[in-house]
Amino acid sequence: MSGAAVGMGSSRASIERSRRTQTFIIHAVLIAGGIIVMIPLAWMLSTSLKPPHQITKFPPIWIPDPFVWSNYVRAVTIFPVSFVVFVRNSMYMSLMITLGTVLSNAVVAFAFARLTFRGSRVLFIIVLSTMMLPQQVTMIPLFILFSKFGWINTYNPLIVPHFFANAYFVFLLRQFYTTIPRELDDAARIDGCGVIGLFLRIMLPLSKPALGITAIFAFTWAWNEFLGPLIYLSRMETFPLAIALSFLRAAHGVLWSELMVVSFIAMLPPVLLFFVAQKHYIQGIVITGVKG
Amino acid sequence: MSAELQSSQTPWTRMLASNAWSRRTLRQREELIAYLLVSPWVIGFLAFILGPMLTSLGLSFTETDLFTLEFVGLENYTKLLSFDTTRTLFWTTLYNTAYYVFLSIPLTISVGFFIAMLLNQNISGQPTYRVVYYLPAVIPGIATSLLWLWLFQPEFGLINWALSLVGIEGPRWLFDRSTAKMALVLMSVWGAGSNMLIFLAGLQGIPTELYEAATIDGAGIWRRFRSITIPMISPTLFFVVVTQIIWSSQVFTNVYVMTEGKGGPANATLMMVLYLYQVAFRQYRMGYASAYAWIFFLILLVFTLVLFRSSKAWVYYETEIGGQRS
What we know:
A: 2 domains; 74% helix
């Protein structure tokens, strides 16, 4: 395009100039938008470090004077139960859910991607259609079932179902498996690999990125889960962080700096995970989103 | 059969026969393994999805807490769908949820699409922008809710301060029934970054030759946008619309946290799932709640089906002309 379309030197310069203004405007808009996105978070941090009388100042004070680091200590010791317990509960729940999600979906997705069996198409359509299902329609019978098991105030109702695969991740992993060349299967077969060998020696090692994405998503969603723990957990020693926060809000409505402190702590694990693994994150969204 | 074959004379035929036998068992064995491997999902589907769904349908014709159960026929449904609004909150919750869904979806989609279009213009620093805009989507709903509760605070909140800078006296947001839902909608726009990522991926999948060819044919920016970008992005748009409707109609954490589980003021933010939670797990009216859950499910199902039907008219799939491409 550049050679034929641009004739004279002056017009080339003007095209170049208009492109530069265009880029400048785009950057300006994107930076402005980015600031709007980040302001609430800056405000959260600022509030979390303010002395009490500066919190309700209007117009607002952006930089706390002095920085009250003791807010952090007070916020985490405000609960009747040690804050460590909540963090441990959240960690336990999220890691177990991640484990179950990765194990079960890796296996199920492999069968759908690579093995031929009668009814596989129909089954896969059912898998996809359950993605559209709101979980609320199964919530009440499951609650009754799990309470019959004596699972109230335990993590079982929140963890166990994740060991039985989930439509979204089956889809994500199957999409990824299908990008692995079939020739590798054939080569492995010729070398005497069975189905299980094919899965363990070829597919699993090659699909590490996709399994990583699955683990990251599963962990983040589990960590952020709210409705499930709210229904099944009522004793404070069993609370994950999310529910402990909602308890703090209900018990001490307007302790803004404490609320901002614990909110900030609660968002650290998923946010740090996102920063560390952002490439995988984006890849995962691309795999499921575009071809969906 | 194999015994008969093995009795035949030449070692050659015996070898062939045993080979055929082992190949067939291999295929059967593989099918068996395949069923074994998908069995976790099948068991999960029966135990945690299909079984509970049917149970929930059954329960919807009863009145039950955890200990007693009484068959009441269609009473739950007639009570729920009654037009006498003193007897049912169904219409209130439906209106609130529809208000939220139909305002927040166009907003989050257009904002997400707009940012994606900007980022797709060969902009430097794209990865940084992506991270910044996507960040709100990974923050736990509880933290987001508490943060926005604070931002919407009428007296000292940042939003009303910003409004006061341009001479507007901010409303009482979550404390006023006429602005409470709008506050929730505005808050949802903060999470538009997740749509942005999906759109960006879709935009980057459009072959640049299409734009080049159109430019040579003399198509301007608007024309290229209308005739290339829009049709090529329509499958992505369809995906986003469907998942967003399903997802945002289940809005719960925000309203629960921001209104202390009540859906106030005066039921102005009583969303469908919040009401379902109240009926089932505060009042323990499991039968009534099951009927409500089924109505909720059917409404979503109808919406999804209508969208899928209509997609033939407005979603463009490359395979229609490309033949081999998919």
